[in-house]
Amino acid sequence: MSHRRWDRCATTSSARSSPAAIRRCRRLRRARSPCACSADWGWADRAGLPGARSDRLPADLCLEAVRLARALAELMPDGPEVLGLLALLLLTEARRPARVGSSGELVVLAEQDRSLWNRELIAEGHQLVRRCLRRDQPGPYQLQAAINAVHADGPATDWSQVLALYDQLLRHTPTPIVALNRAVAVAEVHGPAPAPASIDELNLPGYHLLPATRADLLTRLGRTADAIATYDEAITLATNDTERTFLQRRRARLGREARDEMTRSVDTVDTVDQENVSAALTVAVPAAEVFAVLADPTTHSAIDGTGWVQEAADRAPLTEVGQIFRVDMYHADHPNGDYQVVNKVQVLAPPRAIAWLTGQEKENGHLEFGGWIWRYDLAPLGPSETEVTLTYDWSAVPQSIREYLHFPPFGPEHLINSLHHLAELASGR
To answer: Checking phi first, is residue 377 left (phi over 0); if not, alpha (psi -120 to 50) or beta?
Structure first.
């Protein structure tokens, strides 16, 4: 069902009206208001905004709005905006059965089961929209009805038609909410890249659908960390429990996907001259947050993941080169089982590099380091992504120690596992 005809006529309709017509229009606007409230509640859902629902209104109230709109249409059969309002309410009501899932969860337009839509109401709404088109006097309700008619036409939405209609609606009703709906259509037609900048300029304080929409766009752009933070903003602003739950589920799903993305790694292990081994992993976390985890000795047992590193005896954050921090250890091959190592910070360049030597404290208090070093290098790949390289270097280990210790004392998978553990810890902060 094409509505492109209004692209030509919207700017040519006569703006001249008699005084009697003006008075009649004012009375009509007052009569339309109760009906229009129902349509306005569902408007964002028709545009495809995440988290926006019209089913917050009771079904009997929506049906009453349809009844009143029919009565208005009988009284003013030649009023195009009255017909547009009735069409809008019919097309909105037609999709009500598909807006809520079996567990009471909200279902956005793109995920609705179209077989549940009321085809009789859709056919009636389409017929009214065609009547409006023939009059060539487009107004806000007619344009909104036409947008909803496109959504209900065929197996999928023709977003290019929707965008053209929103261009017309924005000229008739230049409000931030119309602009926000139009940005959704822009993202569907031209991709999400241009949309965030356009909605950042909108003045909609406290309106949760603004950050909800932005979070959806950021998700599609692959800016996972930014999207999660923006979903948090939308959840804080949402005043309806059902909508808040919807947004929380979106945010939780994104968090799970982010954790999966963090396992998207190079997973390379390179050995150079048999003196060091390294592994690299790309994580969806800013470099500063990854560095903060590494500089906290209390996280090292979770990063290690083998059970060898038990607990940090010195729990203060690592803040300077030369700082000593002791860690309680356990290994079945150690003569005592439990033992303690002493680490000395050798490199500290936040948020790009951190490294430490590992050794032991003798009975006389003397610290003796074996010559092997753990080093993490962090390379920011953007505001919310970091490539982390973990290197274990034993090139400085003396021959006396090599005679009874095999290097490296673990398999190559140990470094990869440690990086994955680090990514999980950093994402949970």
So the answer is: beta
Q: What is the C-alpha to C-alpha distance for residues 325 and 305, in angstroms, rounded to an integer?
A: 19
Indicate yes or no: pTM above 0.85: no
Residues paired with 272 in a beta bridge:
276
Sign of CA dihedral 145, 6, 164, 150: positive
> What are residue 343's phi and psi, to 5 degrees?
-115, 145
pLDDT of residue 176: 94
Give, rounded to a whole angstrom, the gap between the first and last alpha carbons of the chain. 50
Q: What per-residue string of b and e applies to 24-36 under the rule 16 or more CB within 10 Å gives b?
A: eeeebeebbeebb
Residue 264 has pLDDT above 70, yes or no: no
Which pLDDT tens digit goes with each residue over 206-260? 999 999 999 999 888 888 778 888 888 999 999 888 888 889 888 888 766 655 5
Closest CA to 117 of 94, 87, 136: 94
- Residue 232, classed as helix, strand or coil, is helix
Name the nearest CA neighbour of 28 among 91, 81, 84. Answer: 81
3-state secondary structure of 212: helix
Its sign, for the CA torsion 240, 243, 244, 245, is: positive
Phi-psi region of 217 (alpha: psi -120 to 50; beta: other; left: phi over 0): alpha
Residues 6+ apart with CB under 8 A from 331: 308, 337, 339
**Hey, CA dihedral for 35, 40, 45, 51, is it positive or negative?**
negative
Which residues contact residue 219 at a Cβ distance below 8 angstroms, ignoring those fewer than 6 apart?
227, 254
Q: What is d(CA 165, CA 168) in angstroms, rounded to the nearest whole number?
A: 5
Give pLDDT tens digits for 145-166: 999 999 998 888 999 999 999 9
The pLDDT value given to residue 19: 53
Q: Rg (Cα) of the chain, in Å, rounded? A: 31
Question: Quick one: DSSP state of residue 116?
Answer: G
**Distant-in-sequence, close-in-space partners of 130: CB < 8 Å, separation ≥ 6:** 1
Q: What single DSSP character describes residue 315?
A: -
- How far apart CA 362 and CA 339 sit, in angstroms, is 12
Identity of the amino acid at 81:
E
Q: Both tokens of residue 393? A: 């270097």
Q: Is the pLDDT of residue 64 over 90?
A: no
Compare 3 and 137 and report the one with higher pLDDT: 137
Amino acid in position 297:
P
